[in-house]
Amino acid sequence: MSLDTVVEDIRNEARERAKEIRSEGDERAEEIISEAESDVEEILAEQERETEQTIAQEREQKLSSAKLEAKQKRLEARRDVLQDVRSSVEERIAELEGDQREELTRELLDAASEEFDDGDTVHVYGKPEDDELLTDIVADYDGYEYAGEYDCLGGVVVESEQSRLRVNNTFDSVLEEVWEDNLQDISKRLFEQ
After folding, report:
1. Of 147, 141, 151, 152, whose CA–CA distance to 114 is shortest?
2. How far apart are CA 141 and CA 110, in angstroms?
3. Are strands 144-149 and 122-126 parallel, antiparallel or unpaired?
4. Dmax of the chain from CA atoms?
5. Coil, helix or strand for 95?
6. How far is the CA of 143 from the CAs of 113, 130, 131, in angstroms?
7. Which portions of the sequence form the region Disordered (predicted)?
8. Based on C-alpha coordinates, what's the Rg of the chain?
9. 156 DSSP β-pair partners
10. What's this model's pTM, rounded to 2 decimal places?
11. What is the pLDDT of residues 134-186, one digit of tens each?
12. Nearest one of 156, 103, 164 to 127, comparing CA atoms
């Protein structure tokens, strides 16, 4: 075998080996690209799921916020209507006059007087505009005297130092009690039709 033949054989072997290496490199490159594409698809799918989940959560939060805001506005509107109704009732009570006002004032003073002992000096206070009415009414009670003004819609505030007692029987206090006791019924009648 000549030297040239040996050299040629070595070259051929080197070429074959280089060809094998290129082929293995190409296969490995294909595997790497395939794995990378698969990873990209998984990452994209995961990001898409997370994005959809985030959108769904934000939609739910906005919906909940909108519902809460609507509920608060509805409650505010109801409070406003109830306040308007109460103000209207207060105006009508404040405008009571004549026999009706006197009758109610006497009933409230009678109820308050049950809390005091005979012989007590009892002071009666009331709405400034009712001073004449109250002066006339307390004249019918022994030991009672009209003592001055009390800021209210009407009725009486009665007190005695001997009994150390003060009774608030104003129209305001009666209205407050009736209002609180019937607030649910009033709301039902106003809003559940």
Report:
1. 141
2. 9
3. parallel
4. 154
5. coil
6. 11, 20, 17
7. 38-67
8. 47
9. 169
10. 0.69
11. 999 999 999 999 999 999 999 999 999 887 899 999 999 999 999 999 998 98
12. 156
